[in-house]
Amino acid sequence: MDMVHVIDFFKGTGQIQSITTCTDSVSQIQSLLPACQRITVDASDTQPEIKKCYVANNALLWKTGMPVTVNVLQIAADGIGECVIGNIPSGASVTWPDGQTDEVTDGEVRFSVDLPGTYTLVFEAVEYLRKEVTIEALAPTES
Fold first, then answer.
1. Separation in Å, CA 120 to CA 29, 91, 134
2. Is-contact 68 88, C-beta < 8 A?
3. Do 109 and 54 share a domain, yes or no?
4. What's the pLDDT tens digit per position in 61-73?
5. Least confident segment among 1-10, 12-21, 109-118
6. Which residues pair with 121 in a beta bridge?
7. What is the pLDDT of residue 47?
8. Using one digit for the tens of pLDDT, what is the confidence trace for 25-54?
9. Are strands 74-76 and 128-138 parallel, antiparallel or unpaired?
10. Number of compact structural domains in the chain
11. Domain carrying residue 126
C-alpha cells in the first residue's frame, strides 16, 4: 500500500491541526474534528512539520518568511522613542511582551516603553513562518 500524509486543518484558515503518516486505506476515515477538514498527500521521505505548512485549495503548501520591516531595534526607554514594525500581512496577529495578542488591521504596529529591557513581539499568520522581533529599550542618558 502507498503511504500518505493525512492532514487535518481548519477550513477557514488552512491552519494545520495534525499530520499523520499512514497507509492510503487508513486515509479514507472521516475527520473526527467537526471544525476541521482532511486531505491526503503523497508521503515523501520525511513528514512535513506542522509549523512550516498550511493548506490552501486542498493542497499542502510551505509557509514563507513574514515580510515585516523594522525601522530600529533599539529605542530609548522614555515612553517617546518607538519602533515601527510595518509591512505586516493582513490578518496577522501580534503577541506583545505582556502576552496580549491583537490582530493587526492596518499593516503596522508601534512599540514604545518607559522601562529599560529587552522586549520581544511575535507575529503570526497562517501563510507565514512565525516572526519574532526583539527590541532593546535603553535607559535614557542625561545631557
1. 42, 20, 4
2. yes
3. no
4. 888 999 999 999 9
5. 1-10
6. 133
7. 61
8. 544 444 444 455 666 665 555 566 767 878
9. parallel
10. 2
11. 69-138
In-domain check, residue 42: yes
Amino acid sitting at position 128 = Y
Q: Which of 126, 8, 132, 11 is nearest to 63 (CA)?
A: 126
Residue with cell 508601534: 110
Last residue of one domain, picked from the residues 23, 42, 62: 62
Opening angle at CA 102, ends 99 and 104, nearest 5 = 135
CB 138, CB 76: distance < 8 Å: yes
Phi, psi (deg, nearest 5) at residue 5: -95, 125
In a domain, 19, yes or no: yes
φ, ψ of residue 28 in degrees (nearest 5):
-80, -10
